[in-house]
Automatic annotation (TrEMBL):
This is MOSC domain-containing protein. It comes from the Bacteria. Signal peptide: none annotated. InterPro entries: MoCF_Sase_C, MOCOS_middle, Pyrv_Knase-like_insert_dom_sf. It comes from Thalassotalea nanhaiensis. The lineage of its organism: Bacteria, Pseudomonadati, Pseudomonadota, Gammaproteobacteria, Alteromonadales.
Length: 276
């Protein structure tokens, strides 16, 4: 088999909304530049995701020199400008972490509240915000637990071969997609180099109900697919279901689509039970 290559790079500026495909990207300690640097919360500061508000996956972002431009079904276009953000910081909750986050503006709060039909607020990972990966001296954005997620095309193909209705890679929300490797080869990788960056694969990614949300319709699959099928061959002893690998970047640098993926070192892959 020819060398493994990077085939897709995706950043998700707003947690749980649509990703933006990039031809090249700067990788920082927190992951891809701008990835999960915005989060939507309830009025108490608890984060909101597509797990409970699946319509978020239909919110489209475009990056500009001064901020973002947002579009969503039935909503007027919204321009987000960094210079208009408030100077107020408030603690927001992402899982068990409390992060001091910069409140953006009442106008943006109202836009998301109207779209979701739910009172909410919108925050940015400002210069005074700080969060670390658990157990590692490594900065983190509003991502679930790790800065980056990698999945191979072969792994998705192996899953889709078991599904009645194939799913798109977008339902798993990876930052990095690679091709020209065996299915689940990434399970055994420990350190890899892509472009200028060395990555350490620190943990398989446990999957939840969010993977059942169709990225085009914003609706959940009633049969809980593909999670139900994944459970049959990707459930570990801890009863979690895993698909994809969490990464941290060991240095900052640039990567681009077409870069070779160099496997620097390997480790024993997680074991999974298989059920009928």
């Amino acid at each position: 088999m020819s060398s493994t290559i990077l085939t897709n790079v995706t950043t998700y500026p707003i947690k749980s909304t649509q990703g933006i495909s990039l031809n090249n990207a700067l990788v920082k300690e927190t992951g891809l530049e701008l990835d999960r640097h915005f989060v939507i919360t309830d009025l108490n500061g608890k984060f909101i995701t597509g797990r409970t508000k699946s319509a978020l996956v239909l919110v489209n972002s475009n990056i500009t020199a001064t901020g973002l431009i947002l579009n969503a079904p039935g909503m007027p276009e919204l321009r987000i400008t960094y210079n208009n953000f408030s100077n107020k910081y408030q603690n927001v909750q992402v899982w068990n972490d409390e992060i001091s986050a910069q409140h953006c503006s009442n106008e943006i709060d109202q836009w998301f509240s109207m779209y979701l039909n739910f009172s909410c607020r919108f925050y940015y990972l400002g210069e005074h915000s700080h969060r670390e990966v658990k157990g590692l001296d490594h900065k983190l954005s509003f991502a679930d637990g790790y800065p980056l997620l990698l999945i191979s095309e072969a792994s998705l193909e192996a899953l889709n071969a078991k599904l009645e209705h194939p799913v798109a890679m977008a339902q798993f929300r990876p930052n990095l997609v690679v091709s020209q490797c065996l299915e689940f080869a990434e399970d055994g990788w420990h350190k890899i180099r892509i472009g200028e960056v060395v990555f350490e694969i620190v943990k398989p990614c446990s999957r939840c109900i969010f993977t059942t949300v169709n990225e085009i319709t914003g609706k959940r699959n009633k049969q809980k697919e593909p999670l139900s099928t994944l459970k049959k061959f990707r459930q570990a002893k801890d009863k979690e279901i895993y698909f994809g690998q969490n990464l941290i970047a060991l240095n900052e640098g640039s990567i681009k689509v077409g870069d070779k993926v160099e496997i620097i070192s390997k480790h024993p892959p997680q074991e999974y039970s298989v059920s009928n």
